[in-house]
Write a structure and sequence with these properties.
Strand content of chain A: 15-25%
Strand order of the largest sheet of chain B: 5-2-1-6-7-8-11-12
Order of helices and strands of chain A: EHEHEEEEHEHEEEEHEHHHHHH
Oligomer: heterodimer
Distance between the termini of chain B: 49 Å
Shape of chain A: globular
Number of strands of chain B: 12
Structural class of chain B: alpha/beta
Radius of gyration of chain B: 19 Å
Structural class of chain A: alpha/beta
Distance between the termini of chain A: 49 Å
Largest sheet of chain A: 8 strands, mixed
Helix content of chain B: 40-55%
Strand order of the largest sheet of chain A: 5-2-1-6-7-8-11-12
Shape of chain B: globular
Strand content of chain B: 15-25%
Order of helices and strands of chain B: EHEHEEEEHEHEEEEHEHHHHHHH
Number of strands of chain A: 12
Largest interface: A-B, 25 and 28 residues
Number of helices of chain B: 12
């Protein structure tokens, strides 16, 4: 990865994209690729305000046209369900840049790889926030973003980006191989997000004890069996991640829960769907994850009732 | 003969109003809603829809007023069985009490309070339109059978009265088959509708979701078989039949209606019942357990 990290483009300015863009603007020249013209205009005029765990307003440049933006690092920060059209939009642009995905689940890298030969980094993020407007994001959970090489990149490249993110005030960690961490998060999200979306519960104590805790445990076990069959040694035990997260004293509302409440498409296809397909490919039985996947898909279908 | 309907919701009202048409039956209605009770006492209990019926009867919200009865017909939601029979048991010291409720475990609850219990499963359905007025949506049969040592002649006597009143009922020596068919049907479809927001027909037309429904049915069948229960017909047929446009394609399962109104559901007595009986017979029921936990999670989310 020869490209310089002095210019970064964040494509997709939802909660995660906004948090990354605003923070990185403190240590690099940051541009934002938005989908809506009004969003780009608002960012150009007012900057991007961060509240919560940090309090500042970043100045950055935004556009809906990738041809107007140039960067050595492009971070695709949209939701998984929006990744394919975003990757298509940047096809033929950002020559020489390294592209990094931050989507939940599995398969984001392949989606992007099909649209260009950029060197690719993988990442997953645990930070969270709330997007109050086009120009204001609240930083809530200061958990890390994990980064690893994927295609045409090295562990050193991952470390350089992690260092940049840390210098910007966020938490990040580089991995020589992201898969163990990615799978830990995949199993965690596949389980917790689907259960939250189906029950309406935020990620609270119900997920770690009693009847629902038993279900979460069984779902995690199916995921662990699939990971083992894939030859992945998990970075963290997803059940322990779950228990720990319910003890933070703050009940996070997983994005899949927010999506079904707002009757938006969810990321279930890239998360629980991906896990179910991997399990099937590996010959591992995952009847409960399969049930969750089908129920969430059906819940999405009910929006048209 | 004197019959008291305990719990005069939609199904209880169908029994009460129809039985009140008979000259040889005196009907009492016990319900905790004083508005409903007052309306019934003032104007009778009116059914509209599948049949136009007005039944004259004594209704009360005070169980102490109930005289000794030959039969009770308990039609409350399953989670109200215990308080309902505790309050009314004194009226059935020399009588028999039939349950026409959903789910598993109602007979056992009744038997803790009264001597003679009748196991019942009923298919007619309706909804409350207002105090004293019930919409009769679907006609259907009722199957009654003895629970424990209840004499079969008593079961036949109640079935005969129901049939003559316009609610066709059959007395059978073992009523567990129809009960389990309905429990399996309800457990496999109601919570899936409740969790997804889909009507019965839309649940069934998604092949992947229909496969989940079949997975739930298979577990229920295995638990029924482990007890030596022979289902009177395949719940799968009932599910496919109900999915037809002219039958119940657009029907929102009662559990979906409960969830939308944030009312407690009967999940503990449906999927929860299958899981409990499955454990007693070492039959694994992981899908029913998962669905049970999810719907309990939905109920817990209302406390947030």
């Amino acid at each position: 990865m020869a490209a310089s990290l002095s210019r970064v483009c964040v494509a997709g300015a939802g909660t995660i994209g906004s948090l990354l863009a605003a923070h990185l603007a403190r240590v690099a020249e940051v541009s934002v690729l938005t989908r809506r013209e009004a969003h780009a205009q608002a960012l150009n005029e007012h900057g991007l305000r961060v509240s919560g765990r940090a309090d500042f307003t970043a100045t950055l440049r935004a556009s809906v046209d990738p041809a107007e933006l140039d960067a050595g690092l492009v971070i695709l920060a949209c939701k998984g369900s929006d990744l394919e059209p975003l990757a298509a939009r940047i096809e033929g642009h950002f020559a020489g840049a390294t592209v990094m995905t931050v989507q939940n689940g599995l398969g984001a890298e392949e989606v992007v790889a099909a649209h260009g030969d950029w060197p690719l980094l993988s990442s997953v993020t645990f930070m969270s926030g709330t997007r109050h407007s086009d120009t204001h994001v609240e930083y809530i959970l200061d958990t890390a973003t994990w980064i690893g090489p994927y295609r045409g990149t090295t562990p050193d490249d991952a470390r350089a980006v992690a260092d940049l993110i840390v210098a910007s005030g966020l938490k990040a960690e580089a991995f020589d191989d992201l898969r163990p961490a990615q799978w830990s998060k995949l199993i965690f999200n596949s389980t917790v997000n689907a259960v939250a979306a189906l029950t309406g519960l935020p990620h609270d104590f119900h997920f770690a004890e009693g009847q629902l805790g038993d279900l979460v445990h069984r779902l995690v076990d199916e995921g662990k069996a699939a990971a083992a069959a894939a030859g992945v040694e998990l970075w963290e035990d997803p059940w322990e991640m779950n228990v720990l997260a319910t003890k933070r004293g703050y009940a996070h509302r997983p994005s899949m829960l927010e999506d079904v409440e707002a009757r938006r498409p969810t990321e279930v296809e890239l998360i629980t769907g991906a896990l179910v397909r991997e399990a099937e490919r590996l010959g591992v039985r995952a009847p409960l994850q399969t049930a969750m996947y089908r129920l969430v898909k059906a819940k999405e279908a009910s929006y048209s009732e | 003969m004197r019959i008291c309907v305990v719990g005069c919701g939609a199904v209880g009202s169908l029994f009460a109003a129809n039985l009140a048409q008979l000259d040889d039956v005196e009907v009492w209605a016990y319900d905790t809603s004083t508005e409903h009770v007052d309306a019934i006492n003032a104007n009778g209990l009116r059914l509209s829809g599948a049949g136009e019926v007005v039944g004259r009867m004594r209704a009360t919200a005070d169980a102490g007023e109930l005289p000794p009865c030959d039969f009770g017909i308990v039609a409350t939601k399953a989670m109200h069985t215990e308080p309902a029979i505790r309050a009314t048991a004194h009226a059935f010291v020399d009588g028999c009490v039939a349950t026409v409720q959903n789910g598993l475990g109602n007979e056992e609850t009744l038997a803790r309070h009264v001597e003679r219990v009748i196991r019942g499963t009923t298919f007619p359905a309706g909804k409350i339109l207002g105090p004293g007025h019930v919409q009769w949506d679907v006609r259907g049969d009722t199957t009654l059978g003895p629970f424990g040592s209840t004499p079969f002649a008593e079961v036949e006597r109640l079935a005969d009265a129901c049939t003559r009143g316009g609610m066709p009922a059959h007395a059978v020596p073992d009523a567990r088959g129809p009960q389990w068919r309905k429990v399996i049907f309800n457990s496999a479809t109601n919570p899936v509708g409740a969790l997804t927001g889909l009507t019965h027909g839309r649940v069934c037309e998604r092949p992947d979701l229909r496969a989940l429904v079949s997975g739930l049915v298979d577990e229920g069948k295995a638990v029924a078989a482990a007890q030596g229960i022979e289902l009177d017909s395949d719940p799968e047929e009932l599910i496919d039949h109900a999915a037809k446009p002219e039958v119940a394609y657009d029907h929102k399962a009662s559990m979906l209606q409960d969830v939308e109104a944030r009312r407690p559901t009967e999940i503990d007595y449906l999927n929860g019942g299958i899981v409990r009986v499955g454990r007693e017979h070492d039959v694994p029921t992981p899908l029913n357990e998962a669905i049970w936990a999810l719907v309990k999670g939905v109920e817990a989310s209302w406390q947030q």
